[in-house]
Structure formats: C-alpha cells, structure tokens
Amino acid sequence: MSEKVNKIVTDRIIELMEQGTVPWARPWKSAAGRPQNAISKKPYRGINALITSPAVSRYGDNNWYTSKQLNNLGLRLKPEQKYTPVLFFNWVEREGSNGKTKIPFTRFYKTYNREQIQDSDTIWPREDDKPIENWESKAQELIENYGVKVEHGASGAFYQPVADKILMPHRADFNCTAEYWSAYFHEAIHSTGHASRLDRKEGMKAIFGDHNYSKEELIAEMGSCFLMSDFGQEKHMENSAAYLKSWLKVFKQDRKILIQAAQQAQKGYDLIKGEQYNAN
What we know:
The chain is about 40% helix and about 15% strand. The chain is an alpha/beta fold.
C-alpha cells in the first residue's frame, strides 16, 4: 500500500480514536445497511467498509459514487466537498530473471457519499414514518427563534464551535421522537457556550475525557432535560447512561461541579427561551 493511501486512512482512524470513538464497533449502524457502491450495489469489504462507514465518514447514507460515476449521471457535488478514498487491490505480472512473478499493487478511487450531492434530499427524499407530535411544532419554533445554524444529514449529533453550527441526523434516523429532540436540545445547549453567547471558554475547547469535557456534557444534559420538561416530555436517557457512569468519579473529586453545571445549564436554557432572570 502506498504511503499516501496509508496516511489518509490511518490519520482518519486515529482522529476518531482520539475523540473517544471506536470505529469498528458496529461501524455501519444504520437502517440502510453496509456501505456500498451506489451503481454496482456491491458492498464494500475490509478497510473500505470501515472508512465509508457512518462512524468514520460521518455520512449516514450507505451509497457511494466515484467521480466518474457522478459525471456519467450528471450529478454535481455541494461546494467544498472532500473525497473518501476507496482502495482497489490487484496483482500485476512482471517479467524477471526467474520468469513471471505477480506483484501486489494498491490504488484508490475518489468517492463521494450521496449526502454530498447537490439537492440530495430532493432527489432521494428520506422516509419518516413517525407521526409529528403536537408539541414538536413549538419545539421547532423555539429552535428557529433561537437562531443557531443547523444542518441535517449527519451520521451523529454534534456542535461545531468554530463554525458555530449544529449537525444533526435526519429525524427519520432516530428510534423515537423523544430521542431526536433530546439530542437536538443537547447540542443547542452546547451552542450557548459559543463566544458570541455565554462564552463557556473551557467547555468549547475541552478534550474528550477531561474535567472540562465532563462538565460541558453535564451542562448540555441538564439543559436538554429542562427544555424537554417544558414540552411535557421526558428526556431520552439511553445514550447518556455511559456519560453518567463516567461522571461519578468527577463528582467525588469535585463537589462543586454539579451545582456549577446546573447554573450554566439554566443560563443556556434561558438564552434559548429568550428569557432573562433577575436575581434581585
């Protein structure tokens, strides 16, 4: 394998592991199934299955196209899209002093996920069989009035402080409505820590697993609970059980963190709701 190909793949895996993600733990956890070439429908195998998986690529759709396939179909990419390398392994025959020998070689194709294609949501609309609940329109109005930039179609829910943007999977990708809005509000509370809002400097620069990371996560969890309660809903807690377990050690080491986090969560809640509280 060439050094260039090796570096592209390995650097991405290391980046994910440093963020606390194990890329090979159920890497294609999606309704669509294993990543595949969109035209041939052949599923990717080995390292290709890993690097095109939602956990590594950050794309939830399982369909991938080469540059040539996109051109043949007349499809255009969204601005500033980066390719994902899909490796091709083969053997070539070389003539030597001892006759013909087979030598392995590797090259890669530049591939793009369906979500990177211009107007992908219109061309391939997502199916969502969950009924819209009465309170959701008010929740949507709350987020829209708050004004943070939001993009749907990601493989996970997260907030990007540098771009000041929330990335969310499609609503259809969640098991239930509460799970979707719990994650949405969690990331919205994170966004209140941006320098232009409440300026939680430590939380915005926190590294996975450190004290500031735990505190920022606790702020987001509490703030999400507050917002869900406003709509008469219980926050979906399945995904936060692991966080809570890891926080026990933090709570024992720092008895102030719980109260401090609750105060910051309330401030984030107030900001999103457009409310002001005067202690006097």
